[in-house]
User: Fold this.
Amino acid sequence: MKGKNVSGKERIEIFKELCKDLGLKLTPQRLEIFHMLAVSENHPSTEDVYKRVRSRIPSISFDTVYRKSYPPPPLDLYKM
Assistant:
């Protein structure tokens, strides 16, 4: 994946396949957390991701963000 110019839509599709392969449930929360991490210019803390995701999904808890962030997808998936 490294060095490829992949659109955001393609990145989401790869992430969906990865979740399926790993047997992870693909929830709106997991997708939003992935999106927030993928567009970040730095390595945000769980607290930063929580604040950003909560602005879009007000009912999400910090615990959900923490649990859905791990295990993380391969790092190069975020920055293709």
About this structure: Residues 8-22 form the longest helix (15 residues). Residues 8-78 form a domain with the Arc Repressor Mutant, subunit A fold (CATH 1.10.10.10). The mean pLDDT is 81.
